[in-house]
Amino acid sequence: MSQSAIKPAPRRVAGVVRRAKPGAGERLARAAATSWRPAALLLVCFAGWWATAAFEWVEPYLVPSPGATFDVFANKADYLWEHTWVTTYETLLGFVIAIGVGVLAAVVMVYSATAEKTLYPILLFAQVIPKIAIAPLFVVWLGFGIGPKVLIAVLIAFFPVVISMVTGLKAVDPEMLQLSATMGAGPWQTFVKIRLPASLPHLFSGLKVAVTLAVTGAVVGEFVGANEGLGYVILQANGNLDTPMLFAGLLVMSLLGVVLFVLVELAEKLLLPWHASRREAGVTTSY
128 pLDDT exceeds 80? Predict the structure, then answer.
């Protein structure tokens, strides 16, 4: 038997079998295997929508046909894009502010028991207040500009960020903290080298929730008082009984949330390649 016919055994390192990285074709097959179910569900939903409109089970002014909705995308693409960009800007600005304030608040709460006992009840109280109820107050205080929309987006996205960051900072192995103290590491070195990297997987879990909530917050602010944005588009369409435009606005809003979620997930993939959830399926543990 020739040497070329003999396949090398998989490399074993410390009880772990490391296989070759999957090629592009194998990765594509895996992606198809995991995505066909949601694609099939979307297809079923679309078929139900089409059947409802085609057989007139519901009046057209209540549920427009898919064709009428997609005509809106074709004929008023510039209009939708202009208002989508406004909502996207408000969402991203609120999301970034929520990250900065939330991470800072989490660090303060973890390193100070007094701050945690003081801030945590206030955060819970602020979270349970319906944001749609206090949005008109923000309009009175800040006017009809971008301020109320960004503030509501911050308030809605803030809670998942701070809770996930606190959980991540507290989830560090105590033995690692003891080891760093034994080796003479100061609080700043311990935070940068141990606590922060260990908290990032938890933080990104919160960020994926927060970014979708930030979209909701921006749109809620636009509902209360605005002359631009997807919330304004939806309100105008609702007032005019323009259900194709209403459906188009809702679809764009949903798509915006999905795109931002995927972007956060891509950032997690790039920044945390070492995390267990990002390892290739070819790495298995042998016993």
Answer: yes
Q: Which helix (H) or strand (E) holds 152?
A: helix 147-170
Q: Which two tokens stand for residue 124?
A: 């819970």
The residue among 28 and 193 whose pLDDT is bigger is 193
Q: How far apart are CA 198 and CA 215, in angstroms?
A: 28
Distance of CA 116 to the CA centre of its chain: 26
Q: Is the dihedral of CA 210, 216, 222, 224 positive or negative?
A: negative
> Mean of the per-residue pLDDT values for the chain?
84
Q: Which domains can be identified in the chain, with CATH numbers? A: 79-272 (1.10.3720.10)
User: Would the CA dihedral through 55, 57, 62, 63 be positive or negative?
Assistant: negative
CA distance 279 to 273: 7
| 119 Cβ neighbours under 8 A, 6+ residues apart | 105, 108, 109
Predicted model pTM: 0.83
Give the model confidence (pLDDT) of 81-116 as tens digits.
999 999 999 999 999 999 999 999 999 999 998 998
Neighbours of 11 (CB within 10 A): 10
CA separation, residue 56 to residues 52, 73, 236 (Å): 6, 22, 25
The amino acid present at 151, given as its one-letter code, is: L
CB-CB neighbours of 281 under 10 Å: 9
Q: Enumerate the β-bridge partners of residue 12.
A: 17
* Percent over 90 (pLDDT), the chain: 44
Q: Is 173 helix (H, G, I), strand (E, B) or coil?
A: coil
Nearest C-alpha neighbor of 256 from the set 96, 63, 83, 50? 83
d(CA 19, CA 84): 45
The pLDDT tens digits for 51-80 are: 888 888 888 888 888 989 999 999 999 999
Does position 286 have pLDDT exceeding 60, yes or no?
A: no
